[in-house]
Specification:
heterodimer, A: 96 residues, alpha+beta, Mth169, Chain: A, three-stranded antiparallel beta sheet, 2 helices, B: 212 residues, alpha/beta, Rossmann fold, nine-stranded mixed beta sheet, two-stranded antiparallel sheet, globular
Chain lengths: 96, 212
Amino acid sequence: MIILTYMNKYLAKAIITLKDEVKDVRALALEKMLKNTGMTDCTNFKTGRFYSFYVFAKDPKQANEKAHHICAEALCNPVVEKFEMSLVEIAAEHIK
Amino acid sequence: MKAALVVFLGTNCEVETKAALEACLFECDYVDSNTCDLLGYDCVFLCGGFSYGDYIRSGRLAKFTPVIGALKKYIEAQRGVVAGICNGFQILCEAHFLKGALLENNSSRFICKNTPLRLEFSGIKKDISLQIAHREGKYVCGKKDFDEVKSMAFLKYIDNPNGSYFDIAGLYDKERRIMGLMPHPERCFFANCFGFDGREIFKIIKDEIKRG
């Protein structure tokens, strides 16, 4: 017997950056280099990492919980990093 | 005394660490990252190098291996001492066995050189020199942990090369059963190495195991 479960497919996008109180040395080096080349109009650079992944869930709430858990537990170190996450519904798929 | 040397994909200092431990009269076994039981060992070493390409962050992916679960049981059972050197220290921090985290050096460069350090542990106060070799060795922690971390640092840089908070190069936990340090004591152990000061660190670990 095959049981079909309908799950919605969501695309999660996460950007992980260092917390504001932590010195972002790469961003500081970049800013210094740009100042040296005369580009002084842009400041407060931040560096970070970008991840995107699919989440299968019944509803947006469950998808958000799952994606949030992955970001907090696997992708980000809460001691020094913070993350911003967005979720977009792609399509409904049935999983055997 | 029996020591387990945990080997992750990418670990590359296990041979030197084993040689140093054997010179300290330890019986050593290499254990895989899939090991689920470590209770037969008096100490567990997480050696230097890399782990799983250090993707995401240094030591981050190693956190999800079965051996970390075994390590948790080992610590809860208060069986022996856990020591993390370099990448091992990063893994211990990422797995939240030790406070804080390790970030990229202030210079954004890989630093490999002999560094003067101050060792302060159970009445021992000594200036030693050990080799450091890391790109992500800047120790940082949250403001709420500042006081606690300061009291738990046993190894400090004299001339801070990477921007670590409070010059911290090595740290232990409350129970003194988990120790992590960025410098490589196993590289300063034998006559053909960078000095003999690494012996002090292995002596401390041996004394801690004997303390029980």
